[in-house]
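ok trying this again, last paste got cut off
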Amino acid sequence: MTFGADEMEFLRSHGIARLATLGEDDQPDVVPVACEFDGAYFWVGGSGESVLRTRKVSNVRAGRRKVALVVDDLPSFDPFVARGIRVYGVADGPVERVGMVGPGLYLRITPHVSWSWNMAGEPVGATWYETRRAVHDGSGSGADDLS
């Protein structure tokens, strides 16, 4: 199973995410990033050589390639409405490409597991939102299990 149509629409309509990488001292580092989803991979990066000096790129280049990515929003406080997708994956790169912020160097993130909640944008009820979990095949072309 791959991302559902509602998840794909959500991911493509949000250009900001939070990316967590692991530093050399085993300290997680999370930063807001411009993020593009092409239907198979997530792309995070930017223009110029300065992107090579960022912690996220340094961590991945040092072989700490496991990452976590969250794309979410809070469309309403009253009533309370929260939506989001969390992704665990593996980052490669940086790769030269033209992306949402122009030509530059980008990390390519292959999703392995994702969790989504409230893609329909419903107000929270008596219980918290049900979560959809998908296990992706790691090729960037889809998923092979849903649980």
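PB: full thing came through this time. Confidence is low (pLDDT under 50) at residues 142-147.
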